[in-house]
Write a structure and sequence with these properties.
11 helices, globular
Length: about 300
């Protein structure tokens, strides 16, 4: 693996780890006790902001990869530049975001003046994302991308929003899949967890003193919907590369990968709840890890398909 590719991989892993760290550490519902203010709309969407952002980011990666292949230009993340100053800035900004988040989200009672702290936290999060982008792609290239590829950016935003909406809407179809998810998670958990306990009648699965019920958000349909939208979009974006009709196999294969990722998430959730912290398992990890895994499974399926 060349340096540019390895840099891109660990930068993506760094951002995912930081987002998951914020998600599992802080509960956005704590902001609701601040009362009404300019921050109210942002507080309302805070719980879904990270899953939506992850989905849009995955869509952007897919769209820009298709554009780069079609135009023959070098991908932006392969352009030569010095990322280390921006990596240092990104780490400092993230540390500030985490510190301010600890003051906002873990506060007991209401704040006298939450406005300044909330604004500072938003600025720190924005600085983290901006520095991360500058570490991945030269800033001048980002400006050129915004100028020349505005249509692709809009397409990525639409695709990401559509994929997220499809995933959430698919949860309404969860009933037939929940038992298969339950059985697969139980078998996987039993491989290394001696205290596993299962109640098939209520679809309750747990270990030790921690247990969960396989609910709509745990059934796996969210990942199936998201994977279906991403792979269908990939068939269109890379239509000059695929060999049809065999390329249609990518859709069910990607959906299967997303379902397996959901089983892995469920097993990890129960293990974290039993051995680390129930609050973390049922909080940010429950909400955010699934979206990250579903996006990773979908993009990996497309990447493997393009190499097949």
């Amino acid at each position: 693996m060349d340096f540019a590719k390895s840099r891109a991989v660990w930068l993506v892993c760094l951002l995912a780890a930081e987002g998951l760290c914020l998600g599992v550490s802080f509960d956005s519902a704590a902001l609701e006790r601040f009362g009404p203010g300019w921050w109210s709309p942002l507080v309302h969407i805070a719980g879904r902001s990270m899953p939506v952002a992850a989905t849009v980011f995955a869509a952007l990666a897919l769209v820009l990869a298709a554009d780069s292949r079609r135009s023959g230009e070098r991908p932006l993340w392969k352009l030569p530049h010095r990322p280390w100053p921006f990596v240092g800035l990104e780490l400092v900004a993230f540390a500030c975001a985490w510190w301010l988040g600890s003051k906002l989200f873990r506060i007991d009672g209401s704040l006298d003046a939450p406005s300044a702290r909330f604004a500072g936290w938003l600025a720190a999060v924005a600085a983290t994302l901006g520095a991360w982008l500058a570490a991945l792609v030269p800033p001048r290239a980002l400006l050129e991308l915004a100028r020349r590829r505005a249509g692709w950016l809009v397409a990525a935003l639409v695709l990401g929003t559509l994929a997220f909406a499809a995933g959430r809407s698919a949860q309404e179809l969860w009933m037939p899949l929940r038992r298969a998810t339950f059985v697969a998670a139980q078998a996987s958990l039993a491989l290394f967890e001696p205290t596993v306990r299962a109640e098939p009648e209520t679809l309750t699965l747990g270990a030790g003193n921690f247990a969960v019920i396989i609910a709509p958000e745990c059934s796996g349909y969210e990942g199936l919907g998201l994977a279906a939208v991403f792979t269908l979009a990939a068939l269109v974006l890379f239509r000059d590369v695929w060999r049809f009709p065999r390329a249609w196999l990518l859709v069910p294969l990607a959906m299967l990968a997303a379902w397996v990722a959901n089983v892995v998430r469920l097993v990890a959730l129960i293990s974290i709840g039993a051995h680390v912290s129930p609050a973390i398992a049922l909080g940010g990890f429950h909400s955010y890890a699934g979206t990250l895994l579903f996006c990773a499974a979908s993009l990996s399926s497309v990447a493997l398909g393009l190499r097949s």
